[in-house]
Structures are given as structure tokens and as C-alpha cells.
Amino acid sequence: MTQPVRPAPIAAVMHGQPMWGVYRTPFRIVNLADAHLPGVMNWSRGRMRTARMKEWQHFAIIHPDVYITMAIVDAKLASTSFLCVFDRKTGELIEHERMAMSAATTLPDQLFDGRFEFSSRGYDIKVRNRLVEKHHRLEFKIGVVGAPKSVFGELKLSEDVDVVPPLVAMLPLGKNRPFYTHKVPCPVEGELLIGNRSVVFDPKRDLALVDVHKAYYPMHTIWRWGTFAGYLPDGRIVGANLTHNVIKDDETTNENVVWLGDKIERLSAARFEIPDNPMDDWKVSTTDGRVSLRLHPEGIRKALTRIGPIKSQYFQPFGKYSGVMITEEGECLDIDGMFGPGEYHEVWW
User: Is the pLDDT at 171 greater than 50, yes or no?
Assistant: First the structure.
């Protein structure tokens, strides 16, 4: 039996101690820099935060005609942002990416009323995290209105913890390395103008996967990740988050969960079989036998980045998941055509 998912305390760090665990409600304060970390006591709080904490927000937005993956990342030495639009009908891929000094963006320390943006010439993304009003808002102004690869518009992502509880985790990546994440599937509504084409999002059909991260990753980090979400015929949201990263004892210390309606259930360790060609089928399973899935990629985003000492090898195929997931009560969920990304990332930072 996996450990239960509990309500979160008010802060991620209290009295200098990380609040280790997996939770189903958000932290009011995400204050990793307040942790007392033995072995780095000679580092000031400001230096520790500036030098080592990696932070980002990633959004995977699923529509029958398009898939959108976008992120704003503060790696401290530099900030990056990307927006990728994949046409699910034609296979066309539109990619935009910008890099800047880290001071170009500051990610908020909580989601109840946190605002940030990434602005560069011809590229402006604003994110408004408003859990106090049970939503996130994304605003896009990229390119020139009507140009072939331009993206303009605004989306609202509804996050109500009583409807779909988030995955909120504070886990030890290793000695003195706290890791925080907040992930959840959200109904999405709004309209985007992609080139001269209007794409309208319906919250009864379309979902966005929110991924918020703050962590003291080791200099050399590898992770494998898979996630998806969709609606079952009975109207319930179903989804999963599956990760195999640098945590050594990941049978219970992990961020692996199943979402089903208004429930979130924990899983054991996740394992990935990634083919040499990442556009071939991936296999994803858990060691408790409750998850057995394949990802059938339809498109991919790849990047090889070098910025000073930072080196990153990354690929994120996206497509349909198929297979089965079994709930704690024994319900067998037939996963057939739920859309989402897989990811392999190896980085030196």
C-alpha cells in the first residue's frame, strides 16, 4: 500500500526544516531558500538561492487540433523561455525560443497571487497564478499579428483543489537538496490566434497540465518524465505523472501519481524504456504493477544547449498514451489515446 496523500502545511520550509512529503493542497509559501542545509552553512541565503536553485513553470496544453508546450525557466546563470505549437492534423511544428540574463525574469514564491513574465523583442508571455481565484492566466504576444508563426491570445486554466487535487511534493533529491513541485491537470478555456487561424479552447474537452518546479538540483542531473490527461466517457478527468530522476530510493520517495476525478493516488517507482529513436514507442510502468503504458509519439521538441558551464541535452516527444492503470480500489482504467509528453533531460548546471 502506498502512503496517503495529505493536506499540505502552510509553508514548504518551517523553522528551517523542509516539510518532506507528498500533498494534495498547495503550499501558501514556497520558501526553499529558508532551509537550514548542513554542509552549506557558510553560504548566505542570498548566495545559495542565486547560485543553485533552479526554477520554472511549464504548461502542456491539449486541444484536438493543436498541442502547445511552453515554459519559463530561471537557471540562475541565464533565463530561457520557449513556446512550441504542434499541429496535430498536419504535423507542422512552430517553435519560438528566447534566452536572457537571469534578472530578466523572477518566478513567484507562491501560486495564490504570483505574477511573472518573459519579455524579449517580438516575444512576450505573461503568467498570472491566481489560486486565490482558482485559476491561472496565460497571455501570449509573439511575433506580428497574422504572421504565419505568430501566437496571440489569452487562456484561463481552472485549478480547484476540490475538483482535481494537485500533486504537491517536497522531496530530497539527495543530501541537502530539497525539491519542490506542483503539478495538476486543469480545464482550459480561451482563444489563441496562431498565424491567421483561430483556435478556441473548451474546458469540457480541453486540458492543460501545469508543472511548477523549484529545486537544488545536483550539478549533473538526469530525469525521465511522462504525463498525460484527458476526460473519461463518464466525465471524470484522468491523468498521471510519472518520473524517474536522481532520487535513489524512489519506491516511496517519488512524485508518481494517478489523478481520477476528485482523487489523487500515489504510485511506486516509475521505470522507462526509451528507444534509441525517441520517436519510436516509449514504455512506461511502475514497479507495483499498477501502470503499464506506451507513448506513441506524433511530434517532438529537441534542444542541445551550451551557455558557459551549462550543457543540456533534451528531447520531449508528445503523442498518445495507451495501456492500463489500476486504482487502489482495483478499478482498471483503459487508457486509449490520452495525449501528453514524455521527456528525457540530461543537464550539467
Answer: yes
Across 20-44, average pLDDT: 82
pLDDT of residue 41: 42
- Taking only the tens place, the pLDDT of each residue in 207-247 is 999 999 999 999 899 999 999 999 999 999 999 999 999 99
At 183, the pLDDT band (50, 70, 90 cuts) reads very high
**Structure confidence by residue, pLDDT tens digits, 328-337:** 999 999 999 9
SS (HEC) of the chain: CCCCCECCCCECEECCEECCEEECCCCCECCHHHCCCCCCCCCCHHHHHHHHCEEEEEEEEECCCEEEEEEEEECCCCEEEEEEEEECCCCCEEEEEEEECHHHCCCCCCCCCEEEEEEECCEEEEEEEEHHHCEEEEEEEECCCCCCCCEEEEEEEECCCCCCCCEEEEEECCCCCEEEEEEEEEEEEEEEEECCEEEEECCCCCEEEEEEEEECCCCEEEEEEEEEEEECCCCCEEEEEEEECCCCCCCCCCCCEEEECCEEEECCCEEEECCCCCCCCEEEEECCCCEEEEEEEEEEEEEEEEECCEEEEEEEEEEEEEEEEECCCCCEEEEEEEEEEEEEEEEEC
Reference 325, options 262, 276, 264; nearest CA is 264
Residue found under cell 499541429? 87
Q: What is the pTM of this model?
A: 0.95
Residues 6+ apart with CB under 8 A from 54: 73, 74, 75, 76, 213, 214, 215, 216, 217, 349
Q: What is the pLDDT of residues 110-134, one digit of tens each?
A: 999 999 999 999 999 999 999 999 9
CA 128 to chain centre: 16
Angle, CA 321 vertex, CA 320 and CA 327 arms, to 5°? 150
Cβ contact 20:172 at 8 Å:
yes
Q: What is the pLDDT of residues 317-330, one digit of tens each?
A: 999 999 999 999 99
